[in-house]
Amino acid sequence: MDFITLVLLGIIILFTLVLILRSITSLPLCALCAAVSITWGILIVLLYTGHAIDPTLTGILMGGSIVGLVYFLREKVHPSYTIFTLPLFLTLISLTYALLEKTITTSVVIILSFLWILMIGIHVFRNNTYINALGRKIVACCKNW
Question: pTM of the prediction?
Answer without folding.
Answer: 0.86
